[in-house]
């Protein structure tokens, strides 16, 4: 199926779903008239209508009008939604779940046998088309569905197919990792404020510093340790600063944070 022929539906119209939809629209992957979103109230739907997308309060209508369906509800709501839409799910549908903690096994059990289902884990920067996403496919999904999803979502950032066991790790690394980066950026800027720089300027420079460092990692393909070493000169400012970060156990603390978030994601999947 070509992207231009797709009719895309979203069951749930929150921030992450809206970010994915904006990425599709900005890249010209799908016209707004081919996107339909449902939500219980108009609270989140106004923004979709402003983008030219169609909206509804009926989840079944999304299934009836769409071929690619993103499930973007809260985890506690999803079982009821799946029970509601199950009679409308057919062999022509591709169902992609964005719902945290809900495994492919659970999705396949609650949907008709043979449903083409995939599990996607995005992160918040998808809303500015700079996300990091991973997905895993269920037993009913083929290479074709995986290729289609990756092609579509490349407009929202990095998108990689992985074994499902990596999805919880991705949550600890990237889903929650966005917050670690914000905390680091905040500390970076506050250090500059302490030394006399205005806060708004320090925040802009901190953000640009992170953006530039990330771009160099991606474009050079170099290990971050190599890039870090390139910044250091013998006896210079950087190596003195890095010594302080090492004394504060930054590296171990960040590794512990990734581990803690990953383990919490695993616990949530078992609840």
> Unreliable runs, pLDDT <50, ≥5 residues?
none
- Give the class from helix and strand content and strand pairing: alpha/beta
N-to-C SSE string, H for helix and E for strand: EHEHEHEHEHEEHEHHHHHH
**Tally of individual helices:** 12
Sheet with most strands: strand arrangement: 3-2-1-4-5-6-7-8
Radius of gyration: 21 Å
Tell me the number of strands.
Answer: 8
Shape call: elongated
Biggest pleated-sheet summary: 8 strands, mixed
Give the overall pLDDT as a whole number. Answer: 94
Distance between the termini: 37 Å
Instruction: Tell me the fraction of residues in β-strands, as a range.
Output: 5-15%
Percent range of helical residues = 40-55%
In brief:
With 271 residues, the protein is α/β, with parallel strands linked by helices. It is 52% helix and 14% strand.
SSE order and pairing:
Blueprint: E1 8-11, H1 15-26, E2 35-38, H2 45-50, E3 54-56, H3 59-65, E4 68-71, H4 78-85, E5 94-97, H5 104-110, E6 116-121, E7 131-137, H6 143-153, E8 157-161, H7 165-175, H8 177-194, H9 199-220, H10 224-231, H11 237-247, H12 250-270
Parallel strand pairs: 1-2, 1-4, 2-3, 4-5, 5-6, 7-8
Antiparallel strand pairs: 6-7
Helix pairs in contact: 7-12, 8-9
Give a description of the structure.
- The protein is of the alpha/beta class and 271 residues long.
- It is built from 12 helices and 8 strands.
- It has an 8-stranded mixed sheet, with helices on both faces.
- Strand 1, helix 1 (15-26) and strand 2 form a beta-alpha-beta unit.
- Helix 7 packs across helix 12 (250-270) and helix 8 packs across helix 9 (199-220).
- The longest helix is centred in the C-terminal third of the chain and has 22 residues, at 199-220.
- The relative contact order is 0.10.
- The mean pLDDT is 94.
